[in-house]
Amino acid sequence: MEKMTYAKSGVDIFKEERAIKGLVSNIVFNRKDIGRYMGGHFAGLIDFNDWFLVLCTDGVGSKVKIASAIRKWDTVGIDCIAMNVNDAICVGAEPIAFVDYLAIEDPNPEITREIGKGLARGAEIANVSIAGGETATLPEIIRGFDLAGTCLGYVKKDELIVGSRIEQGDVIIGLESSGLHSNGFTLARKIVEKRGLSYDDEFPDGLYEGRTIGEVLLTPTRIYVREILDVIRNVEVHGLAHITGGGVRNLLRLKDNVRFVLDDPFDPQPIFSFLQRNGNVEDREMYQTFNMGMGFAIILPKEFADDALDIVEKRSDERVRIVGYVENGKGIDIPKLNLHYE
Fold it and tell me: What average pLDDT score do residues 105-119 get?
């Protein structure tokens, strides 16, 4: 069987990185109050007296195609909120407001109503207000619909977390994902469709209690706002990473002169082994495309790890544990799989 990769499915993350660098190289900041441009990090900052205003933007991606395939649109709004607020908290910010952008081929009220349900639910979980949005009917551009949004947050300047304090001896705490979240769906869809499977097929081996493949793939992105804010308000934290597109390589956004060693990673949920088996996808590709069971990471001094674990366990029902540590060196290692990323 041919080995499938994200690049072969149509998304080359390394080409994307080069394209982003080209885009950013031509951006000029016209205001003196831009505190820092967080190129490569998870959010951008605007100087606001003793605070930074935090802005980030993201979308649901091709996960919306599965929603349309099985006519279930009530969760993609949660994904849209999650992908943004989870980025905002990576700099220690509290998200406060959100605006959405829906580009659609045909403004079907049934679809928009269900999307709205998800947006409302995501905002409730994240404790943000939806301040507005835009719906654009673009039949000559869009096939189906695309859903994206922008999040506004804030953080005191002396409480900003950008990874600069990460050092040898820190530990990495992983928070469980709910599944694929909203990344890697171009590859996931190609695997399902190339194997001749249907999104309406029951997930094999009874692993998801009678749910279909499409329903499992649509599991909403987990929102980590409340537990992460509790952690950073109570213990010393050196770095925070949302494990999204690029998989574990997102840790490289935090600091480039240390090595992140994931010596006890989570066992990925069955959806990942299903995709890997049916797509003949190598481990290296899986861990740089999908979150592989870990949706968020906290890097902090070892002496604060137990307190942080207690806070997360009290706040949520996801698995959480120490998954690794920081040492001198460079890149990311997953020893049990003999994987190294730089």
Answer: 95
Question: What is d(CA 237, CA 179) in angstroms, rounded to the nearest whole number?
Answer: 26
Residue labelled with tokens 């706040």: 315
Tokens 């804030």 correspond to 154
pLDDT in tens, 245-255: 899 999 999 99
Mean pLDDT, range 143-168, rounded to an integer: 95
d(CA 295, CA 319): 11
Neighbours of 283 (CB within 10 A): 14
Q: How far is it between the farthest Cα atoms of the chain?
A: 59
Highest CATH level, class, for 31-159:
alpha beta
What is the band of 38 on the pLDDT scale with cuts at 50, 70, 90?
A: low
Distances (CA, A) of 19 to 15, 24, 301, 311: 6, 9, 35, 39
d(CA 214, CA 200): 6
> Which pair of structure tokens corresponds to residue 29?
């900041």
**Model confidence pLDDT, tens digit, residues 173-204:** 999 999 999 999 999 999 999 999 999 999 99
Average pLDDT of the segment spanning 215-229: 97
The structure tokens listed for 328 are 């001198």
Say if domain 171-341 classifies as CATH 3.90.650.10. Answer: yes
Residue 185 corresponds to which tokens in the numbers above?
């769906």
- Domain boundaries defined on the chain: 31-159, 171-341
**Cα of 20 vs its chain's centroid, Å:** 18
For residues 203 and 216, the answer to whether their CB atoms sit within 8 Å is: yes
Q: CA 290 to CA 306: how far, in whole Å?
A: 28
